[in-house]
Amino acid sequence: MALGFLIPKNFICRYSLRTGATVFGILMSCLMIVSCIATLIQVLSMDSRHSCGGFPWRNAYSFSITAVLYSLIMLAVNLWFIWGLKKEKASVVLSWVVITATWLIQLLCLMIVLLSMYSKEANFSAWLFSIIFTIIGYGILLYGCLIGYAYWLELKNKRRPSTPEIDE
Q1: Exposed, middle or buried, 122 (CB in 10 Å: 0-12/13-18/19+)?
Q2: What are phi and psi of 15, to 5 degrees?
Q3: For a tag on the chain, would you pick the N or C end, based on fewer CB atoms within 10 A?
Q4: CB count, 10 Å around CB of 151?
Q5: Is 24 exposed, middle or buried, given 0-12, 13-18 or 19+ CB atoms closer than 10 A?
Q6: Using one digit for the tens of pLDDT, what is the confidence trace for 9-45?
């Protein structure tokens, strides 16, 4: 494997990959719950078109509803991942890794667009802090995906029967 050096052997150099994947699944589930609640509160607190015209209000409202549904779907995926960890289902773990990696790429593109759009309006130090926290957050999320992938490799190798070596 060309990039095998990126795959962690343990979670935080001490705990098993299963423990790390479970911790990360619970963390992601909590993040999705918080995201869903915050976006739902935003949707419920939108007063109908008093602060802006009809078209911008409909766009903001529809994007918020989409974010709530997306958070609920990702919550279901993370709960499914925790269930798959408990049952040691390699296909569930790999599916979670692919879905979460896709979510991370989509989120990265959104962050790049938003940081580009508001770079002129924001103070440079605020823009710099948001870049720094974005990089830190992505590092943590990427590490979690790598933990999930490493655990999938562990499950895959555990299920494969070992073949005895033949001495010649």
Answers
A1: middle
A2: -100, 165
A3: C
A4: 27
A5: buried
A6: 899 889 999 999 999 999 999 999 999 999 888 888 8
